[in-house]
Amino acid sequence: MADPALSIVEDASSAARVVADRVEELIRGRPNAVLALPTGRTPLRLYDLLAERYRAGRIDFRSARTFNLDEWVGVGRRAPGSYAAFMDEHLFSRVNLRPENRAIPDGAATDLNAECAGYEERIREAGGIDLAILGIGRNGHIGFNEPGTPFDSRTHVVDVAVETRAANQWSFPDGRVPTRAITVGIATILEAREIVLMATGAAKSAVLRRMLEGPIEPSCPASALRLHPHVQVVADAPSAADLRSRTEAPGR
Ligand code: GLP
User: Fold this and answer.
1) pLDDT tens for residues 100-119?
2) How many domains does the chain divide into?
3) 80, 83, 131, 167: which has the fewest C-beta neighbours closer than 10 Å?
4) pTM > 0.85: yes or no
């Protein structure tokens, strides 16, 4: 167990640049890399940068594969608010990732347990995840692994916490946020060879402190990442403001 590497940068754009640099480096060295991808507001600038770098010929996604971390249950792939629609808008329509190489759990599947088992199988068949990029919820969730989720969990269906539903209201035009979701498990995430967690904004400062300085336990799912040997936390200054042990990286 090693402490996560902590990069504190000036602002959200700098955080996105640090993570985009890592994605670019990884795919240059390993064109068929397997990425796990988050949704939410945090990665928006990252996806803009990846699209820009694709257009500039700096990153070629032709052989890369992606697995999204989660999806709402009961929301079709094209429905507004679905993470599939989010990914199409913010990344997939803007880069050359092949449709067959980008996976998102199907929240409209009739047999959700089979969908979860099949998703795990697809990750295994792809050779596992090289780099998992994560955001963090204010209650410490990663993917949709809410507080209390066992660290040995695999892809499963969850009841989304009330505060998490409220935090996601912005992405549903009618304001009706589903109550359940499919998420990869904490064990699925911990099997990634490398993990980068992005945190931006003052609203994440308390949870970042809990994650990095509180006890490692299921009440804060993100604390599980401290059990992984190769984790980088990329935080902007506002989200890092409550950390006791701050090592400022040069602002970029
Ligand atoms: C959702 C997603 C998470 C994401 C979190 C934080 O709940 N399921 O994967 O990390 O939101 O979202 P934001 O980046 O908007 O703060």
Assistant:
1) 999 999 999 999 999 999 99
2) 1
3) 80
4) yes
